[in-house]
């Protein structure tokens, strides 16, 4: 991509674990450094014509500790929220995408399959499945009106998309109703026409109509202003395929057979009582997760309905495992990952990269390292090619030891209309967006 877009979870070319690829030194990824590096890379400090008009942390305010934490703007009376949609360029019209409809779901699937996020070298593109999209877009209390499409008036072809889903997000002691914004996509042929700002304003308007005034989102691009910047790490499960398709490289002084041996995993999980999560586990998992997430500065405020939706296993969408103590039958540990394949662009032999993404993991009795090694083992058994994880929560404690290698892109986390005084360390973030 020409705009240095290395967005959410974009597949990355990762050097093999032992090829001496170092992650960015910790200090380099501080917010001040990111902003400075970003601005240095421009001949003039880049202006954000759209984002400068929005209630988000502005670059000029970075480091100003006199500004209060919390909402940047107060809510406006609902009667003052604009009642009509924003204007689109005249060849286009708004559509609300009914994800219950097989036909609409297909259209969304195909728009994203052909136009959504790619890595910097355009070798891979996210290929969210239809079942995944239905899961991601229909959590408890979702609003159909927040699944927004743009069609060409004459052909009715779907050419752009943006979504929100409601979530309660805790920031320190405050639980805030927010929209999680995702799947912003403009057809390749309609890029750079300032359609994205109109889509963002329209989803914001529809969020306001539900009396919600804050949002959370991620992007691979630097915008004003990240609350934290994370890095993706990748654990090869099928190193031969990853090397064949250019996702990773053979390390120096490594042969294919040594590499395969390096990443080999046991056939079965090691932890006694490790099993798939079931419906009856929802109350115990909710307690475990709520207690665990409370230590982070920003995290979702999950109740049992949320846990049932987001974490109960759904085939080819989300996998969750837990440890039930063989003695007490207490649920002591939990791990989960979601399924997000990428299309492999222009490879003769392979068209799909099957990737698992670490989701929420909780260890109280089983060491996190052992728990995550068991997660790798079940992911391998399910035929995933790679297991990806962000350096959020306690993930840094297992990444290197379990042979994850750092990816080459960054994922920035943002809040809309909510100021955080200082950027967070990635380990202070307890939120994974899809
Ligand atoms: C992201 C995408 C929709 C932007 O559309 P575009 O045609 O490139 O850009 P437009 O001319 O419409 O709009 C540019 C404005 O959108 C902003 N923008 C670009 N990407 C953005 C993102 N991911 N999130 C929020 N704003 C974004 C730009 O910063 C710019 O605003 P600014 O002048 O204030 O900086 C488009 O490039 C796309 O579909 N890319 C592939 C999918 C993707 O990366 N989606 C985003 C996932 S986070």
Write up what this structure looks like.
- With 434 residues, the protein is α+β, with helices and mostly antiparallel strands.
- The protein folds into two domains: 65-73 and 82-226, Aminopeptidase (3-Layer(aba) Sandwich); 229-428, Aminopeptidase, CATH 3.40.630.
- Helices cover 23% and strands 26% of the residues.
- The strands form three sheets. Strands 2, 4, 5, 6, 7, 8, 10, 11, 12, 13, 16, 17, 18 and 19 form a 14-stranded mixed beta sheet that branches.
- The longest helix is centred in the middle third of the chain and has 15 residues, at 195-209.
- The radius of gyration is 21 Å and the shape is globular.
- The model is unreliable at 1-27 (pLDDT under 50).
- It binds coenzyme A.
- Coenzyme A binds next to strand 6 and helix 4.
- This is Glycylpeptide N-tetradecanoyltransferase.
- It comes from Gossypium arboreum (Tree cotton).
- Belongs to the NMT family.
- Adds a myristoyl group to the N-terminal glycine residue of certain cellular proteins.
- One of its GO terms (molecular function) is glycylpeptide N-tetradecanoyltransferase activity.
- Counting structural domains, the number is 2
Number of strand elements = 19
Distinct compounds present: coenzyme A
What is the average of the pLDDT values? Answer: 92
Class inferred from helices and paired strands: alpha+beta
- The percent range for strand residues is 25-35%
Which ranges are low-confidence, i.e. pLDDT below 50, for 5 or more consecutive residues? 1-27
How far apart the termini lie comes to 21 Å
The shape is globular
Order of helices and strands: EHEHEHEEEHEEHEHEHEHEEEEEEHEHE
Task: Look up the CATH topology of the largest domain.
Answer: Aminopeptidase
